[in-house]
């Protein structure tokens, strides 16, 4: 797709989401940035569910959730990421709905 067609399409879409007054002043670069930000934003509901979860056992007792900084309690519901860092399900779901990386080591999901 040519840059102009892409711009025109984006502009149309952005206009649907915003007030006309707000969208009219956007340049091509701003629109692209807006699109990239949309793509970069966090995981979808389905992706979050796809991460799975498990109940904390005795082996997790000495761990800390690095999002809320609280210790992991027995039978707490945890999610473990590919990088092997684990967090409370609630904490990591909130985080990943905004970002696509591990809050501790920043590795991409
Ligand atoms: Zn937590
Ligand atoms: Zn990590």
Automatic annotation (TrEMBL):
GO terms for cellular component: nucleus. GO terms for molecular function: ubiquitin protein ligase activity; zinc ion binding. The keyword Zinc applies. PROSITE patterns: ZF_RING_2. GO terms for biological process: ubiquitin-dependent protein catabolic process. Signal peptide: none annotated. Keywords: Metal-binding, Zinc, Zinc-finger. InterPro entries: RING_finger_E3_ligase, Znf_RING, Znf_RING/FYVE/PHD. This is RING-type domain-containing protein. It comes from Chondrus crispus (Carrageen Irish moss).
